[in-house]
Amino acid sequence: MTLPQGARERRVRTGGIELCVAELGDPGRPTVVLVHGYPDSKEVWSEVATRLADRHGLHVVLYDVRGHGRSGAPKPLRGGFTLEKLTDDFLTVADAVSPDRPVHLVGHDWGSVQAWEFVTVRRTEGRIASFTSMSGPSLDHFGHWIDKRVKRPTPRRVGQLLGQGAKSWYVYLLHTPALPELAWRGPLGKRWPGILRRMEKVPTGAYPTPSLPSDAAHGAWLYRDNVRSRLRRPRSDAHAHAPVQLITPLEDRFLSERLYDELEEWVPNLTRRTIAAGHWIPRTRPDQVASWIDDFVTSVEQERAGEAAGQGREQGGGPVRTAAAGRYAERFGGRLVLVTGAGSGIGRATAFAFAEAGARVIAVDRDAEAAARTAELSRLIGAPGAWAETVDVSDEQAMEKLAAKVHTEHGVLDVLVNNAGIGLSGSFFDTTSDDWRKVLDVNLWGVIHGCRLFGRHMAERGQGGHIVNTASAAAYQPSKALPAYSTSKAAVLMLSECLRAELAGQGIGVSAICPGLVNTNITDTATFVGVDAEEERRRQKRSTRAYGLRNYPPEKVADAILRAVLLDEAVVPVTPEARVSYALSRFLPRALRALARVGPPL
Ligand SMILES: NC(=O)c1ccc[n+]([C@@H]2O[C@H](COP(=O)([O-])OP(=O)(O)OC[C@H]3O[C@@H](n4cnc5c(N)ncnc54)[C@H](O)[C@@H]3O)[C@@H](O)[C@H]2O)c1
What we know:
Elements: E1 8-14, E2 17-24, E3 31-35, H1 46-55, E4 59-63, H2 83-97, E5 103-108, H3 110-120, E6 128-134, H4 139-151, H5 155-167, H6 169-174, H7 179-185, H8 187-200, H9 212-232, E7 244-249, E8 270-275, H10 281-284, H11 286-308, H12 329-332, E9 336-340, H13 345-356, E10 360-365, H14 368-381, E11 386-390, H15 396-410, E12 415-418, E13 424-425, H16 433-461, E14 465-470, H17 483-503, E15 508-514, H18 522-525, E16 527-528, H19 533-550, H20 554-567, E17 571-573, H21 576-587, H22 589-596
Parallel strand pairs: 3-4, 3-5, 5-6, 6-7, 7-8, 9-10, 9-12, 10-11, 12-14, 13-16, 14-15, 15-17
Antiparallel strand pairs: 1-2, 2-4
Helix pairs in contact: 1-11, 2-3, 4-9, 7-9, 13-14, 13-20, 15-16, 16-17, 21-22
The protein binds nicotinamide-adenine-dinucleotide (NAD).
Nicotinamide-adenine-dinucleotide binds near residues 346, 421 and 517.
């Protein structure tokens, strides 16, 4: 693994050793300092650094922590890695790369553990503009966390203590003399790339760094010099003096998310983000990590500019306005989401729900005005970015153009919602080939185009994602009144299941949403075949009335969609009647067959 192209390396002296520092981007822009963890070197940040410099236009600085990569190691090693010395190193680097302005600090793993020290000691005050922490707690906060659970145990607290204890097995090993050094220089060092690939799905070619065995052997002193002593006597004044963004990977095998439960006590200005990923997110989720760092840096810089102009909040006031207030803000803030059929009903409600959670939203509809309105309202609700695109999802070429445009202008989607659909009702023999084509083109081919074009980018990026396809209860509930519509939706359901199986290994979830009867415009625009225009209008009105009386709001379907993404649900029947018929389809299909002869409205 190498440094990004164009990185400028230099060396700075601190406490008798030289640190290797690399810089990218324009030094006139806000500076982000990236601190790596154990047993990594600064190259672990390569993908994130490139994105921050090239895509987000920031000045990016990364350095090898003492004893790692191409930085010198202290002599003797014992006592050479204390948090105090690591703080000296950070201040030396910050002064060298950004002498006049505070820097935005970012740490992963042990880089985050030491950065917590930097942001909570007084001598760095005024030198740190913000801190983004990933997978590395403050030893002081951790010490108090343990203390509370030992001194005031409740069953829940004891469970949390045991849970984290089991995840910390390697910390005990790293405290043993000589064993870690022997292991890293021997079999563990050789097998590490394979272990990381299997355990974390870190892409091939990422490791080993040539310095891995000695980095890992030196790094054992990070633990020995600090962990036991600080956990026994945690500082009681370890409050952060800069805004903090905490990114918690929910599948971190080394750290429990419960560790951060009471963090607000220590951080008055905290923004939380969560991500469904393992420990090494700088390698496995660089797009998301870079975009969250950029969002946070931008908002802190805006806040600082406001303060400088005398319009800002009072010192120590409210939180930085990065996190949206919505229920799902931690998970969807800053994500890129595209919704088709976003001009009305379920699609519009879904766009709004993602906007409220702080996602960037692309609203796609064949109705240009309706899509533009959804985008405009999404911005008002809180989306950091919202755009409208006018496309007919059944038009393959138009969809290809849309995918290329989205990719170039916004990047790879994190969530795709293939929702556009039309209703068509009438008996099989009254349904012409053209009617079939019309409904299959939109309801099925629209979904196929979306999955193929946007899903491919997601899969190639290798950083996970989620595809939601709006099917219907009609997908599993036969009806004599809806042969074409139900067939299109059954196909969407099966397509979703097949794709889910195919993409499971790539961290991409696929959900089929089966709403039931929802009060939207679909009944008003549905086609009723086999009748004249007047009768069609009468039936449209009648079913609109019936759906209005049922009055199930599209917002509840939107909520089910966000939950399906969070929980990676496969098939989601939404309304109570959709859930009952789903159960019947599995356990009492004969009852459903009998009902099919009556035929529901749509
Ligand atoms: N409303 C229900 O009861 C219900 C039940 C089950 C499933 N669904 C499904 O939910 C989805 C959304 O429907 P809704 O109820 O919100 O309907 P809606 O009519 O309120 O909204 C559908 C939107 O999709 C757009 N659209 C239609 N064809 C398009 C195309 N070819 N390209 C781009 N955009 C197109 C429309 O302009 C409209 O804005 C559909 O797939 C529908 O089949 C709805």
